[in-house]
Amino acid sequence: MYPLLFRTVLTRMDPETAHHLGMFVIRVTGLAPFSWAARALTAPDPSLRTRALGLEFASPFGVAAGFDKNVVGVPGLGALGFGHIEVGTITAIPQDGNPRPRLFRLVPDRAVINRMGFNNKGAEAAARRLSRLRRRRRRPVVGVNIGKSRVVDVADATADYVRSATLLAPLADYLVVNVSSPNTPGLRGLQAVETLRPLLEAVRDAAGATPLLVKIAPDLPDEEIDAVATLAVDLGLAGLIATNTTISREGLATDEAVVAAAGDGGLSGAPLKERSLAVLRRVRAVVPDEFCIISAGGVETAEDVLARRAAGADLVQGYTAFLYRGPLWARQINRGLVRHR
């Protein structure tokens, strides 16, 4: 039913409007009695419970950052069967993001281009919602992804990240430093080891006991991937997320004119699959077994999740395929994982 709805209705809507409509449905799903019915249909099998980052996840499969930017859909996403939800990216200072349109579907590629620009209501608003969320008796694991405020100069980025970490780390199950989005000017330059080290040190100290991870881009050269992974281990971080969106447009099936009209931004979805898997394998080769790797990028099926786990991922995330596969996507993946056990 969802594929028909997608083809006939959702593809005719502005992608961002469709996302807001979907998020409204997800928020309603998180309310009783709808959440009870959803869990009866989608709850992961107990055999899928996974330990990572000192936490227990109901499933190794969760939602990547970018879907729930303002901590409003966590109960509903949990009710739909996701083992964890990574909220954000959240910035210390509220911001509207880039001008619309800023989200574009590449349907033949099952992909999306976005240049959202970290649109969110800021760390203080997120902290209030996270505080309420932590009082819920039943909730999935919640990660918090933080980024640089657009109005803050790159030279002052460390203090900006620390401000967010100080507010949000005590309320997060784990914290992620996002230095890899292509949609904030100068942000990806922070992935260079000489600038990344002092930033991660400061955020690590602000995060305290909350597990800290760093999220990297798929576009880094292999030697820089090795360097960032080694740095994360040296600094005592809990893990690394591989990968964010890509600025590459190679190998797309979508008409070149459509891709060009979409313009700049990060590409996510199926075209990222092979590179994301390659980065995962590279990171796993240079970090110790206890170091957590969360794999994201091009994940669509249970087979994809299994491939990431076999390549060394402790947890796996998805986002873009949710738009193409619909609200029962997590259920499909979790059931597929059980069948393949």
Shape designation:
globular
> CATH fold name, please?
TIM Barrel
- Spans of at least 5 consecutive residues whose pLDDT stays below 50 are none
CATH class: Alpha Beta
InterPro entries: Aldolase_TIM, DHO_dehydrogenase, Dihydroorotate_DH_1_2, Dihydroorotate_DH_2, Dihydroorotate_DH_cat, Dihydroorotate_DH_CS
Enzyme class: oxidoreductase
Protein name: Dihydroorotate dehydrogenase (quinone)
Binding site for substrate: 69, 114-118, 178, 183, 244-245
Quick description:
The protein is of the alpha/beta class and 341 residues long. It contains 13 helices and 13 strands.
Explained architecture:
The longest helix has 15 residues, at 15-29. The mean pLDDT is 93. This protein has 13 helices and 13 strands. The chain is an alpha/beta fold and 341 residues long. Helix 8 packs across helix 10 and helix 11 packs across helix 13 (329-339). The strands form three sheets. Strands 3-13-12-10-9-8-7-4 form an eight-stranded parallel β-sheet. Helix content is 40%, strand content 17%. Pathway: Pyrimidine metabolism; UMP biosynthesis via de novo pathway; orotate from (S)-dihydroorotate (quinone route): step 1/1.
